[in-house]
Amino acid sequence: MLPRWLEPLRPHWRTLRSPSVHYSLGFLVAAGFVAGILFWGGFNTALEATNTEKFCTGCHEMHDNVFQELKSTIHYSNRSGVRATCPDCHVPHQWTDKIARKMQASKEVWGKLFGTIDTREKFLDHRLELAMHEWSRLKANDSLECRNCHDYDSMDLTRQGSRASQIHKRWLGTGEKTCIDCHKGVAHRLPDMAGVPQG
Amino acid sequence: MRNKPLWIAVGMTVGLMALIFFAGWLFGRMVGKHERATEPRTAAAAPAVPAESAIGRTGARQLDALRRGVPVDQEAAPLPMARVENVDRKRERAYPMQPPTIPHAIDGYQVDKNSNRCMLCHARANAEKFQAPPVSVTHYMDRDDQFLASISSRRYFCNQCHVVQTDAPVLVANNFEDIDRVLAAAEAKGSP
Fold it and tell me: Which residues on chain A are in Cβ contact (under 8 Å) with B104?
């Protein structure tokens, strides 16, 4: 037996379970197809809307802290006018990985709701922990988001500084190190790095 | 008017379309205004005074590095930005105790209480890995000449003494001679 408060739903449930009376199978299939397109398009549009610089900097936590630091770096403004926006580095580009990261981001919604880093002081207190998350994520996926643009095979080492080419060849070329091992703080200020290996 | 509901439905649909059109028109106007606002304003720039040489009006013989002799009511054409030398070749020191100049670009290097980017390569422990010259042993000494394990706090901010060099033209002529040349000149004068 249904609980009492579900009783009013019974006729609707019955309608849902019984075959269609008025509409042909063809119409239902076509309508389902169109509805599916609309739903999927809407879902992806919404997903992409959350994947923009404007969305990320919509919250003051991001806008006043990390975004201000990004502005002075080469990833924000440079001679050729290519900008790496927040999601280019912080959200995987592959669909499955992206969805996984977006589900993780529900934790960030929690943090936003409860004001975990809603002041500059709180942000600085949490900065090492937040940075650690990103470093371990990039370490685990072999700096995938860096490599979406910076591919070792496409690097012309002869156009790099002699130091850079030497070190890239020695450590990156052999796969011993990954980008984030040396390039921590490439786009944001570093937290207290005491005890954190940087090279 | 037999089918009144139909007319009502048509009227409501037309009204809704008009509303949507109006909203879209307003939105488009807003976006357009925003785009127009970000267009570069070229017409407003004041007439720039061409510098007579690469470093301004040097004929006036004044050391006005900021305005380079351009009258205050006129706007000087800015010099091209100097480029930092990034060739990784050690330079000669002008005198024995001169802090060596940095032979590479240091854009975006963070040197503060949280992190010291220079010491990533120039620390004693990392110098071999990056083939960088380790900082001098004096930089590990405190003011009582006691050696410390890591760089002394009074030597922490590298840029206080060590600087990059750019290809900017010199504003003031420099006729400094190092000790070898001074000695050689004295010797040449002393033995006729």
Answer: 161, 163
